[in-house]
Design goal:
Blueprint: H1 2-18, H2 23-44, H3 49-75, H4 80-91, H5 95-135, H6 144-151, H7 159-167, H8 174-200, H9 209-230
Length: 231
């Protein structure tokens, strides 16, 4: 865990010193690096029963957390935007910039072969369900606006090509594959640094600690129970 925390700390200190605008970096990670990473994963990793198990389990946990989070937020009488914010904070695991590095340092490349498809599927869920929840906080556009936000996510368009090319053994020329690998390998380290930078911009006095505590309980206590029950 220490190497991962050091990377977060590096991003945190860097942002405290230089105070950069993080939005261009976040945009690059979301619209450029993650699509390369998603394509690389599905192109190299054959889909088997293990991946199907990951998909089913993740969907069960997601549905359970959405239901519990929605009930809790209604019980606390949160307005619509705060309901969506609460769901975004509790429903999706931090498997990319935290989970994958932990697995890599703990179990090496063998563990990474299982962690990467899981992380990619979680990223897809965030790119579809998460974007829908976030955009749904603005009721002005109705259903159309969240749907448009989902369709704007480029990583959703590289999944099927990656799966088909892997299934039919379509060989990408070595020079192109090297470029894809290089860009893909940047994604997780950069996202980890961005997370540290984002934490540097957090103002503690503006945090509602009761809501953070409730979200933390749901994320750290209820979520593992749902995961265990789904096995």
């Amino acid at each position: 865990m220490l190497p991962v925390l050091l990377i977060f700390l590096t991003g945190f200190i860097f942002q405290r010193v230089f105070m950069l605008d993080i939005r261009p970096l976040s945009t690059m990670a979301m619209y450029l690096l993650l699509p390369f990473l998603v394509f690389q994963t599905f192109y190299k990793q054959p889909l088997d029963a293990s991946f199907l198990y990951i998909v089913v389990t993740s969907l069960l946990i997601l549905a359970g957390l959405i239901l519990i989070g929605w009930l809790l937020s209604k019980w606390r009488h949160y307005p619509k935007k705060q309901v969506n914010g609460f769901l975004l904070a509790t429903v999706f695991p931090n498997s990319g910039n935290y989970g994958v590095p932990i697995v890599l340092f703990a179990y090496g490349q063998k563990g990474l072969a299982y962690a990467m498809p899981l992380m990619v599927f979680h990223t897809i869920l965030m790119g579809v369900v998460g974007i829908y929840i976030a955009a749904n906080g603005d009721s002005a556009g109705g259903f159309k606006k969240p749907l448009q936000s989902v369709l704007k996510q480029p990583m959703n368009y590289v999944i099927i090509p990656g799966i088909l090319m892997q299934h039919y053994h379509v060989t990408i020329p070595a020079n192109f594959m090297k470029s894809i690998d290089l860009v893909s390998n940047i994604a997780i380290p950069l996202i980890m640094l961005i997370l540290g930078m984002q934490l540097a911009n957090v103002v503690g006095q503006h945090i509602n600690w009761r809501r953070v505590g409730l979200a933390s309980i749901l994320r750290l206590v209820i979520s593992p129970i749902l995961a265990y029950a789904s096995v």
